[in-house]
Write a structure and sequence with these properties.
Length: 179
C-alpha cells in the first residue's frame, strides 16, 4: 500500500480534476485529505478499518460541505467539498490497488454497509515496510516510493495542468482550451 507521499499525490490529482481549481491551497488540502485515512495509525482504531471506506468519505463530504457553505459561495462549496471527499476516497482506491502483507488483507471499503475487507490483488504499489530493523529496509522503501512517483507523479501533474486549463477557460472572455 502506498506511502503518505503517494497518497498525497493521489489526493492532489483527484482534487484538481474534480474541482477544476488548481490553486495551491486546494491542492494542499486535497493532498492532506488523501493521507487522512491513515490517521487510524495514531487513533485507537483498527488500521484500514472504517477510516478506509466510502462511508468515511461521505462523512468527509458532509463535513467539508458544511464548513465551506459557511464561508463560500454555495455552487463552489459543493464542488470543492466533492473534490476534498474524493481526494479522501482516493486513499481507499490506492490501498485497494496496493500489495498488502498484513492481516486482514485489504480495506474495509464498504463500511458501514459491509464488514468485508477488500483488496484487488493487482499489487500496483509495493507495501511500505515499517520494519526498520530488518536488512534492506531502506532499499525496499526507496523502490516502493520510486514506483509510486512513477505512477502517481505524472497523473498529479496532468490533473493539475488540466484543472488549470479548465479554470482559465471559465474566466469571462477567455479562449477555449486547445485540444
Ligand atoms: Zn491507508
Amino acid at each position: 500500500m502506498p506511502s503518505p507521499i503517494g497518497h498525497a499525490l493521489g489526493g492532489m490529482a483527484v482534487g484538481a480534476l474534480v474541482s477544476g481549481r488548481p490553486g495551491w491551497r486546494l491542492a494542499a488540502v486535497c493532498a492532506v485529505a488523501g493521507t487522512l485515512p491513515d490517521l487510524d495509525f495514531v487513533l485507537p482504531l483498527q488500521h484500514r478499518g472504517p477510516t478506509h471506506s466510502v462511508g468515511a468519505a461521505v462523512l468527509v463530504f458532509a463535513g467539508a460541505a458544511v464548513l465551506l457553505a459557511l464561508r463560500a459561495r454555495r455552487d463552489e462549496s459543493w464542488r470543492t467539498a466533492a473534490a476534498v471527499a474524493l481526494a479522501y476516497a482516493s486513499h481507499v482506491l490506492l490501498d485497494w490497488l496496493g500489495a498488502d502483507s498484513s492481516t486482514p488483507r485489504g480495506v474495509l471499503a464498504l463500511w458501514p454497509v459491509s464488514d468485508v475487507f477488500y483488496v484487488s490483488g493487482l499489487d500496483l504499489f509495493n507495501a511500505v515496510d515499517r520494519r526498520y530493523w530488518t536488512p534492506g529496509f531502506w532499499t525496499r522503501n526507496a523502490l516502493a516510493l520510486a514506483r509510486e512517483l512513477l505512477i502517481l507523479g505524472p497523473l498529479a501533474a496532468i490533473s493539475v495542468s488540466a484543472g488549470r486549463r479548465v479554470r482559465s477557460y471559465q474566466r469571462p472572455g477567455a479562449a477555449p482550451p486547445r485540444a
